[in-house]
Amino acid sequence: MADVELIRSLLRPHPDFPKKGIVFLDIFPILRDPVAFEVLITHLVHHITSSTTVAPVSSGAKKVDVVVGLDARGFLLGPIIAQRLGASFVPVRKKGKLPGECVTATYEKEYGTDSFDMQADAIAPGNKVIVIDDLIATGGSAKAAGELVKQLGGQILEYVFIVGLTFLQGHKQLDAPVYSMIEIDE
User: How many whole angstroms separate alpha carbon 82 and alpha carbon 67?
Assistant: First the structure.
């Protein structure tokens, strides 16, 4: 798949960031290349609309109502994908960064503990939801986003990532199918 190889070639590793022992994969070179960014978005939308999890709207099957993007790189992908799917976009932010009434979930990540908020009126009961972020490592942040969706009565159809660090097995923490465009096994 040429699209996967193009995106993989643009990922930039940064060892010992944000702390020693962590290798941060930088997606920003993809965003600086308009063709690569379009390839990425088109690939993810095609996956979502053609997967067995989310059938095309014309089939009468599941439709995506909401795309949830995780703070902060999920904000770069989520609104564009939501717009192309005819869905709304809902941000999940670090605790204390959203106005109004919020629901909260706390999670463990590779290098500490954190909490996420979602506005309490962002998802209606029964909404079908895709959760998107740039990378899944241990799965803590995605799991917390899923907990927020469930607190509001939403149904997660799939978790979608650019990169999956499969050796960390974060996908096993999640309660719905997981798609990673690029899987890294080491």
Answer: 6
